[in-house]
């Protein structure tokens, strides 16, 4: 019996490894934007979308960004996110250990329009730099696998807000500028749904944009801010809150501590 269980576990592990390798190779083969994303944009967002023009625009844009650390930026909708709107502006870090940052086709269409924009206030490209910085900060953080319930949600909120501070710092923008770009490019366009994206309850892993922007007023992840987020998530376990402070709280003048 024990041998059968061991063999089954081995087979599951090999299957997971094959899936991981398959996904890695398919991401690796994408030249900036996937065929499926191109088709989606031409069909739903912009019939005149020109892939080569888009690639050269993104090349130029990425030359200005110096914190990517060999990560590849690609535009497509990952298999685990099919249900969410492909036209919205979302980004992901991909699977653990993979040097890739994924943006939705909606981002590609919006940046593509910017490439024709002439006199532009640069809000969408600034927002793009902030989101890249946010996702890169996620890559530096530890993932909490064995946390459940409110503690899991609280750690998720802390990860998001601390990555927001990372995004602001890496992009070299002020919190006010990021707020302006976010209001203009996402919250005004996508309305109340995005403004309330996340939750005011403790049931979802992302705090609302309104909550996040309020936290930015602290300027950095202070111990007081970690305390407040723990309280807002309904955490009464002081030891857990102290552990979160050791991981996420930043010193006044220093750069962001590596979480973990
Ligand atoms: Zn995030």
Bound molecules: zinc ion
* Major β-sheet profile: 3 strands, mixed
- Assess the beta-strand content as a share of residues: under 5%
Order of helices and strands: HHHEEEHHHHHHH
Rg, Cα atoms, Å: 20 Å
Number of domains: 2
User: How do the strands line up in the largest sheet?
Assistant: 1-3-2
Number of helices, counting only DSSP H or I runs of 4 residues or more: 10
Shape, please?
A: globular
How far apart the termini lie comes to 39 Å
Total number of strands: 3
Helix content: 55-70%
Q: Could you characterize the architecture of this molecule?
A:
The chain is mostly helical. The protein has 2 domains: 30-120, no CATH class; 140-248, no CATH class. It contains 10 helices and 3 strands; from the N terminus they run αααβββααααααα. It has helices spanning 2-28, 35-45, 51-63, 105-114, 123-140, 149-171, 175-195, 209-216, 223-232, 238-248; strands spanning 72-75, 91-92, 100-103. Strands 1-3-2 form a 3-stranded mixed beta sheet. The protein is globular and about 55 Å long. The relative contact order is 0.09. The protein binds zinc ion (ZN). Zinc ion binds at residues 134, 138, 160, 163.
What is this structure's SSE topology?
Elements: H1 2-28, H2 35-45, H3 51-63, E1 72-75, E2 91-92, E3 100-103, H4 105-114, H5 123-140, H6 149-171, H7 175-195, H8 209-216, H9 223-232, H10 238-248
Parallel strand pairs: 1-3
Antiparallel strand pairs: 2-3
